[in-house]
Design goal:
3-stranded antiparallel sheet, 20% strand
Length: 210
Amino acid sequence: LSVGLDGVMLRWLWRRRVIPFKDLREVSSDKQVIRLCSRSGEEARLSAYWTAGSWEDGQLKSLVGFGSRKGYLDAILARIEEARSAREAVGEASAAARLDRRRRQLKDWLRELRGLMTSGQGSFRQETLESEQLWSTLEDVRQPVLVRAAAAVALAPSLDAEGCERLRVASSVVVDPGLRMALNASLLQDEEALLRAFEVMEQEGLSGTG
């Protein structure tokens, strides 16, 4: 088993299988095996030796490695979670950077944001942002209000009923007036209200409030 920043690679004899973190829903262990559950519902069960032997003249001389199977599996779980956290941190930073308005006109920027979930549209011709990256940015109170609002604009065109409810909940716990207005306007696809919301947030930013 190999763990990288992009996922987990399983090897058995000549077979190889890669499970990207973006497709991984849950990782757990019952002290005997590790279960990797994908978002599609598939499950991979891992069981492995936790020691290696040192042999001499056909006889086992010593064992090296972990003291128990549980210790080995715990170490694998910790490594996977560490890699997933690192990937999420990189993804959030990338999402925030790509949501930045820079010098674009407000209307042009909003139009480009709406195309982020569809590869090749607008002027964002890099890899399409994943939905969970946008949700993570939107719901992260450490992010600037303009970046969180931009994430909502990017998400809005692709929201189903469950996504709309999630956005309503996010809006209900926001106290910043400009951001709350932007989330509601994104939900309603109200262009004029959205423009006013961003103007309010930008004015608050210039005056040092918000």
